[in-house]
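## retry 2 of 3
previous attempt timed out at serialization; input unchanged, resubmitting
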Amino acid sequence: QMHLVESGGGLVQPGGSLRLSCSVSGFTLDHTDIGWFRQAPGKEREGVLCITTTGSTTTLANSVEGRFTVSVDKAKKMLYLQMNNLKPEDTGVYYCATDPVYVCSTNGRPAFWGQGTQVTVSS
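## retry succeeded, writing output
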């Protein structure tokens, strides 16, 4: 069974940086696209960035373009989200998610989710 665990969230000032991590088990990142999603208070969950098995990335939220990057370490079975120049509107719970047939795209809707990690951007 696919299992995902996020970490690395916290409180950061506007303009600061954070790196989120997602540890996966029960599958490998060689055969599965995977993505980062977030849910801001009072808003619907939205995609942030996703990455394919070949390393291609897709930006799912225009607001993070040029500030966030996604990467994987297949050997360590880890997914990362580097977030720079954070803004208060980036506040929310961040999730990594995938499933055996998930496709990294704007229409992707993965079935397996981690528990999330809270990111708060505030001065």
